[in-house]
Amino acid sequence: MRNKRLFILMIGLILFIALMGFTFGRNRLTWPEKFVSDAIGTVQGVFYRPVGAVADFFRDLGRLSDVYKENEQLRQTVAQYTQDQIRFNQLEADNKRLQEELNFTERQKNMDNYRYLIAHVVGSTSNPYERTITINLGSKDGIKPEMAVRTVEGLVGLVSKVKNFTSTVTLISNLDPSSSKGSPVSATFLSKPDSFGIIEYDEETKTLMMSKIEEKDKPMDGDTVITSGLGSLFPKGIIVGTVKSSQVGDFGLTYTAVIEPAAKFNHLQEVFVIVVPELDDVNEVDEP
Question: Quick check: is 59 in a domain?
Fold first, then answer.
């Protein structure tokens, strides 16, 4: 009995080895093998598709969450823009109405409609006592002395010398405070339009200082400082910088503030020369 079982086991082993050799030695599959392979592939596909669909579903849910957040931010931005636009339109309408009621002349109405001439900086001085830059626009381009110059960020200085094709711009950190033309910048706080101060460069601290600020207009750190338009040299509304610090000034009746300039004087490449309407009128009169 034991020999019979051993004989059957050996016959089965020999048939298995022969079948394996026959299978690996050919390229084509028999129909049972094809059937088994197709069945396995079908079962895998049945399970794979639902699993992939579930994974895609959760991935889409994550994307929908991001899209929802972006849409929410866009809605808030649009709402704020709409509100600002309404406010601007109201202010513009009020300004127009007041100008008409006060019988403003056309020249007065256009006082704030500045024109900008873009210029490239082609040179600068390293002399700390005479900080100037040279731009590639001159008298041939309509540039005149005492025109204000700015960058996108803020005020840069004043045109001091004009040649045919180039001009010299004196930076606000080097304007002469003793000049009879009133080079110091008259300024105000953006949040307090009725405030007033004078900006000069302090040689000792190497910073811009805003002085003669009234007690009621106490400056706060971070306040935006803009030109007030007084003195006729610097057009109003040009950003000068922000308040870095402040202290009590003359006899405790005024304040003095340290101003961080908005413009980066060490990296000037393009600047804008500001042409105010009054100078436009002069140019038109001078033309033959």
Answer: yes
